[in-house]
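Possible regression after last week's pipeline update?

I re-ran a chain I had predicted before the update to compare outputs. Posting the input and the new output here so someone can diff against the archived version. Not blocking, just want to make sure nothing changed silently.
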Amino acid sequence: MWLFAMFDLPVLTSQQRRNYAQFRKALLKHGFFKIQYSVYARYCSSEESASTHIAMVSPALPPEGQVRFLLVTERQFGKMVVITRGKPSKPEKAPRQLQLF
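New output (post-update):
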């Protein structure tokens, strides 16, 4: 499953820019990567894992603006159409799972 974090945060004042940067750094710290401006994603093995990551990022949520989290299945993510400079390309692949014995 893929967890998306989509946000629209104000950056008019220096404090708002600081809040934006802190939230973005929290996303990166917890394994999210940038899909496009203000849209970050990370792979989660289950809904419980996604809930855990949302809870870990939540303390960094700024007091202003809007943040949305969206969970999509691997199949739905694979149907994403990505067009770069007019040329279609495939979405990112899920990371390999570690297998412990």
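Follow-up from reviewer: compared with the archived run. Helices lie at 14-29, 47-57, 74-78. Marking as no regression found.
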